[in-house]
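Private note to self, pasted from the team thread so I don't lose it. Backbone tokens:
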């Protein structure tokens, strides 16, 4: 008769084969949390492996992540004749805003961290239309989440008269 064998199960995201905590997680109250995860019991606390791997640390939510936003396309502004692609709050990171005409990218602009909108001169779009109507929209691809998430505004029809 052979001796009984024991098996140990572990989550490789949290500990290695020697049961040593990995560098990318917090272990709080014997539970494993990925870096950046918000405390389910307190929205203002999170796992920050850079600050403390064994207890919750304070989190300040002052800007939206790109994955939380919806884009709004407005214009043209009567004073400046500008089209505006806007976020509901300042961006947490630099983003690339693509302008699309009839679903095809025609311009790109950088929206800097802390900003909430980009503007483009209406004349730039009119030149592309060459006298024909077109559907204008703007979009942002958020590469900070996996898989990347693409957000697009509503379409606005531009008619050259």
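Design output:
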């Amino acid at each position: 008769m052979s001796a009984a064998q024991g098996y140990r199960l572990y989550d490789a995201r949290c500990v290695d084969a020697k049961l040593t905590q990995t560098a990318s997680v917090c272990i709080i109250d014997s539970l494993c949390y990925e870096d950046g995860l918000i405390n389910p019991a307190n929205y203002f606390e999170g796992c920050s492996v850079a600050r403390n791997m064994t207890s919750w640390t304070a989190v300040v939510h002052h800007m939206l992540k790109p994955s939380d936003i919806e884009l709004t396309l407005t214009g043209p502004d009567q004073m400046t004749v500008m089209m505006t692609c806007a976020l509901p709050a300042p961006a947490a990171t630099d983003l690339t805003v693509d302008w699309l005409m009839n679903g095809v990218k025609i311009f790109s602009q950088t929206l800097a961290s802390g900003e909430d909108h980009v503007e483009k001169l209406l004349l730039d779009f009119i030149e592309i239309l060459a006298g024909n109507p077109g559907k204008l929209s703007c979009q942002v691809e958020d590469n900070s989440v996996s898989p990347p998430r693409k957000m697009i505004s509503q379409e606005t029809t531009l008619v050259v008269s």
